[in-house]
Every structure is written in structure tokens, then in C-alpha cells.
Write a structure and sequence with these properties.
Blueprint lengths: L5 H8 L9 H19 L8 E8 L5 E2 L5 E9 L5 E7 L4 E6 L13 E10 L7 H17 L3 H4 L21 H5 L11
Antiparallel strand pairs: 1-6, 2-5, 3-6, 4-5
Helix pairs in contact: 1-3, 2-3
Length: 191
């Protein structure tokens, strides 16, 4: 589901609402822009579950999950099978902390890093799209559409990820990061 409407994109591009000749290309651009905005911000339209992998985590040190807002932790383990107690420190930003469920004499109790940690969790799905995310989606969709006019309706050069053409995928619309700055957080890394 796109994060913005086709009508809003048409208005931004100056295309009359009654003109449906470009609707297929505009819809592809909206879908691609929506996926990009979701990926950059960590929001999801699905509750999950999702699994994030971390090469290493320090016990009691906070780290950030890729998707948000975090609703619940399903499980957390290391590659060696050590179970972890993960607490949600800030659901909106995905900030969590982990502690091994082991006796205090275990090596992790002396501050060693936990290696190869997988955290499985659910999120609260995005049901109401904030105006800034709608605006970012329109800005990116308009940018993609202008760059690819004509190519969008063909489909022969499109890759399977949300209809984003490989030649368009790396580009962000000018100003997009500024619009999304309040919604972007560090993900998948220890803090």
C-alpha cells in the first residue's frame, strides 16, 4: 500500500486528475518510493515477526533494532544457543538492551561481548501515515517518475524489488533526507 495517494502525486507533477495515461508509471513510482521511505525510517505495514542479526552486542549496552516501534520481543539468542533477556528501552526508536540468562560466573557477566546475536521481535504496524512521510513519498515518487519517464510503463527493465529499476535504485530525491531526518534512526548497530 503506498504511503501517499496517486492524486497527491499527480498534483505535485501538474498532471490533471482526469488524465489516466500515466497512472501505471505513477503507481510504480509511488510503490517504490513507499518501500524506500519505510526502509529508511524502520516503519512497517506488517507486525512481523522480524529477525535482526548483530555480529556482537555488549551486555547491558543499548542497541537499535531495524524496525519500529517495537511491540514485543519474541526471542533472542546467540549462535551458541545462549538465551538472552532483551528489554525494550524505547519502543518508538527500537532501542533495546540485552543480558544473558546465565549464572553470574559466566564469561558474559564479566563484560565480554555476546557474538552472533539474533533478536526476533514484532512491531506496531504503521496504520496512520504521518504527513512528513506522505510528503517524503511524494517527493521521492515524483523524482523517480521524472527520471524514468517512459521506462516505468514498459516494465522490462524493472527488478523484482517493489518495481524499482536497478538504474534508479541508488538515487534519493534532493531534500528527501532532510524531510525524513526526524524519523531516521541508527539501526542494526550497537550504540
Amino acid at each position: 500500500m503506498p504511503l501517499a495517494t496517486l492524486a497527491a502525486l499527480k498534483q505535485r507533477l501538474g498532471i490533471p486528475a482526469a488524465d489516466t495515461s500515466e497512472d501505471e508509471g505513477l503507481s510504480l513510482a509511488l510503490d517504490a518510493a513507499s518501500e524506500l521511505v519505510l526502509r529508511l525510517t524502520g516503519y512497517s505495514e506488517s507486525a512481523g515477526p522480524f529477525a535482526d542479526f548483530f555480529a556482537e552486542v555488549r551486555p547491558n549496552a543499548p542497541f537499535v533494532l531495524r524496525r519500529r516501534p517495537v511491540a514485543s520481543i519474541v526471542s533472542a539468542t546467540t549462535a551458541e544457543g545462549v538465551s538472552l533477556a532483551v528489554s525494550i528501552l524505547a519502543a518508538e526508536t527500537g532501542l533495546v538492551g540485552a543480558q544473558p540468562i546465565l549464572p553470574l560466573a559466566a564469561p558474559w557477566a564479566q563484560g565480554q561481548r555476546l557474538r552472533h546475536v539474533t533478536v526476533t521481535y514484532t512491531v506496531t504496524p504503521l496504520t496512520v501515515v504521518p504527513p512528513a512521510l506522505q510528503e517524503a513519498t511524494i517527493v521521492e515518487a515524483a523524482y523517480l517518475y521524472r527520471r524514468g519517464q517512459g521506462a516505468w510503463t514498459d516494465g522490462s527493465d524493472l527488478v523484482g524489488v517493489g518495481g524499482v529499476s536497478e538504474k534508479f535504485a541508488p538515487a534519493l530525491a534532493p531534500g528527501l533526507q532532510a524531510i525524513l531526518a526526524p524519523y531516521i534512526h541508527r539501526r542494526g548497530r550497537t550504540v
